[in-house]
Structure formats: structure tokens, C-alpha cells
Amino acid sequence: MAEPVTSLKRASEIAQQAFGGQVVKAEEVEFDQKKVFVIRIVNDGRVRDVMIDPANGAILNP
């Protein structure tokens, strides 16, 4: 398997730039048989989990 292009730190930055707020958790998980980064962001009391593709840094969920 190829090394991810995007690091967990970079994925956190991508999610924060897209949605604002504060990153409270960042982890690598398996979803649909592939690895993804899940970034948890809190913004104005709302929690959002953002999935990032490590291969290209794309946000996988709206």
C-alpha cells in the first residue's frame, strides 16, 4: 500500500480551514475497507466529524 500523501496533521488543517472551529480529536480509522482520517471539530458548541482521504486530502463527507 502506498504511503499517504496527506498527514494526520495536514488533514486536521484541511478540516479546520473548511469548517472552522477547534480540532479536538484526529485519528486514522478504517472505513469501507480503506483507511481514512477522521477529524472531530467543535464549532459554537456543535460537533462535526470530518473524513479526509489520506491519498489526496479530499473531504469525503459534506
3D structure, described in words:
The structure is a single chain. A three-stranded antiparallel sheet has the order 1-2-3, with helices on one face. The protein is globular and about 30 Å long. The protein is of the alpha+beta class and 62 residues long. The protein has one helix at residues 8-19, and strands at 22-31, 34-43, 46-52. The N and C termini lie far apart (27 Å). It contains one helix and three strands. The longest helix has 12 residues, at 8-19.
Short characterization:
Helices cover 19% and strands 44% of the residues.
**Would you tell me the structural class of the helices and strands?**
alpha+beta
> Helical element count?
1
In whole angstroms, how far apart are the ends?
Answer: 27 Å
The percentage of residues in β strands lies in: 35-45%
Number of strands: 3
Order of helices and strands: HEEE
Features:
single chain, 62 residues, alpha+beta, three-stranded antiparallel β-sheet, 1 helix, 3 strands
Q: Mind sketching the topology for me?
A:
Blueprint: H1 8-19, E1 22-31, E2 34-43, E3 46-52
Antiparallel strand pairs: 1-2, 2-3
